[in-house]
Each structure stands twice: as structure tokens, then as C-alpha cells.
Amino acid sequence: MAETTTTSSALRRMESVRRHILPASKPVLHQNPLSAMRLDPSPVIIGGMVLDIHAKPSMQPHPGTTVPGMVKYISGGVARNIAECIYKLETRLFMISVVGNDMAGDFLLKYWRSAGLSTDGILQVDDVTTPIVSNVFDGNGELIVGVASVGAVENFLSPSWIYQFCLHISTAPLLMLDANLSPESLEAACKIAHESGVPVFFEPVSLVKSSRIAPIAEYITYTSPNEIELVAMANSLSAPKKYSFVKMEQFKNKTKAVDYLFKMLKPAMFFLLEKGIKFLLVTLGSNGVFVCCKECTSLMKVQRKYEMMSFSTPVREKLEQCFPSNMLINLPREGSSRTYVFHLPAVSASVVSLTGAGDCFVGGVISALCGGLDMVQSVAVGIATAKASVESEANIPDKFSVATIADDAKRTLLSAKTMWCQ
Predict the structure, then answer these.
(1) In this entry, which stretches build a coiled coil (predicted)?
(2) Which of 31, 41, 231, 258 has the smallest number of CB atoms closer than 10 Å to its CB?
(3) Residues near 130 by beta carbon (within 8 Å), at least 6 away in sequence
């Protein structure tokens, strides 16, 4: 092992010398050292691994000068966060991503390997900067401003790299894509999944990148936009752009707030369902989640051709004991042609940081779906997982309490209601 490390170091020094005396060439791509290949059916996560730099002032910041505070490095990236959350919910997974051959890349890979996770699908790129996001927060944990440099994901997480993992994707219970991928890579991954009947979860990432769903909408089973991402996605598929969202006045009454949001978002939600998306999980922050679906079939549970994956058994058992044969929500039956919208409320939390809450929501949903829970139960688990995230300073909590997630999910399910059924 020491000999291998020394040889690798010497090769990098030689390459550095070569770059100074020879004309520039294309960056060298190489895979991380492979562990023994073991292909177990696992959800596949494709997207960004990012080094997050978090800055939180200890006093009111003043423009044009520095203030005391805390600055720290955190493993981040939408896809990476979701993958870590899934892993900590006791579901195995396979990650396809890219990092640079630099300090930030080493930091991310060291953390990944320390958790016992495979780096087989993670591409290292010489002469390219690992994706970095620098965030500045206020004293309440709210983001003031952030600057993202994630070009490596779009430039090097290419269709050719993704095609190398066709077998992983085609045998997966679910494929998750984040919108940092280039349109070409998104389409390539979707087509591989579609040919094998693998459901696809699209994570919009941001307002700007959410529109990348337009060419692949017909392949998408699940997607989890917030209000403004939802409208952007609908407008990317419509001409002229006719959908809008007006931020509501502050409602003291939660019911009125939810009713207002439904009225505002219903046109965009129903339009996206018409475009072929099977399940819309519209995240509403402290107002919970809308679950929208049309013509539901057995997709209420992830279709699998293999033995059920391991998921936190106490969560599944507790929820199934609460709702053994009938839910408080009338779920669509197979062959239903109706459109349904359910509302699941958020669980009250002692907020420490909101960074990572959305990623933990998606991670909780995917882990629960792969564990055999239905769509609405899985969203309840996602909401409970997001609550654990906002009560932690880290993007992903060091450890999840299965019992607490089960209790919070149960509380959410007991308060869920049908908003629309026609």
C-alpha cells in the first residue's frame, strides 16, 4: 500500500513538470482505487459532492468589513447530502459523482470512506477544482448569501461516465438525480432507468436549475420542488410562461396558509401531472408538504424485482401498526383516473440551521420507499427526517433517532388530509 502511494505521488510530480514544458492537454480523468466489486440492488444517487464553507457571524454583520464568528468546512452537495442521509437511515446505496484531485476532494472522499461507503462511482479529475459552495448565515441560521462553484459536476459527470454504471442503475429500486447534472447527462441516466422500469426521483436543486426537468419530464416518477421551483418547472414546459406564485401575507392560521398555497399552486401542480410526472412532493417549509398524483397504480410503493431492502425496521413496524389496513387518507386505488392532492403538515422543531433540511426530506422519502412504505407514509418519514436536520448544525445529523422519526412521522400522518380528489 505504501509503495502504491509513493508511486502515485511520484507520477503526480512528473505530471506537474510535464505541464510546464509541454503544450496543454485535456485534463486527465481517473477513477478512485476500486474496492472489490459487489453489485447489490441499491438506490443509485447521481449528482454533486460539494465542500460547503459555512460562515456564521457572532454579531450583526456590517458591509465592507469583517466581524467575529465561526467558519467551518462541511461535506455538502445536494446529492451527497441525500446519499449520506439514506445511509444513516440504514439503507445501502451507490453514489455516482465527481471531485477534483485537490484538498477539497480529498476531504470529501476521506469522509465518504470513513463511513464505509463505496467510491467506485466517484470520478476524480486532475486540474479541476472540487465543487465548493460558500454560505454566510445570520445569527438565526438563515442563509444571507451563498456563492457556488459547481462547474465540475456539469462538465465531467458526463453520459460516458454514467454509462459505465448501467448495471447499477438498471437493477436499482430507484434512481435519484440532482439538477446540477448537464441536460445530456440527465437524459442519459433517465433513459437507462426507463429501459429497465426503474423509477426516477428528480431533485430541482435551485430556481435556475429546476427548469432542466423540461426535456426529461416524461421519465420522472418523483420530484420535490418548493413553491418557486414548482412554478419554474411548469413554466419551462409551457409557452408562453403563464404560471406565477405570489408570496403570501403572513397567516397566523395554518389552515388558511395551506388553503392559500393550494389555490396559488394548483394550476402549476396539475399542469406538471399532465406532462407525465407521477408524484409531485411540493415542499412548503413550515407549512408542510403537498403530495400530488394522478392515475395512480402500484407506484404507491416502489416496484422491486428483488427482496425488500433493509430500512429502519422500528419505523416501518411502528407506522404499519398505526395504519395496518386503512389510512386516514384515502389513497388512490390501482387504475384510478382521479387527481389527488394530500397535505401533510410539518412537525414543530427547535430550529438551529435550515441548511440540509430539504436534502434530509428527500433522503427520508427515498429510504422509506425502498423499505416498502407507501408514498404518503414515506413523505411523513421525510418530514420527520427534515425536522431532525433543522435541529442540528450539520447538513446531516451525526445520528438519527429511529424512535423519534417514527413518532414524528406518526404525528404527521394523523394530521394529514385530502385537499383534492376529482
Answers:
(1) none
(2) 31
(3) 49, 50, 51, 99, 100, 102, 104, 105, 108, 152
- Please give the domain boundaries of the chain with CATH numbers for all domains: 38-152 (3.40.1190.20), 199-421 (3.40.1190)
Task: Check residue 356 and give its pLDDT.
Answer: 87
- Who's near 254: CB < 8 A, 6+ residues apart? 287, 345
CA 120/CA 110 separation, integer angstroms: 14
pLDDT per position as a tens digit, 121-135: 999 999 889 999 888
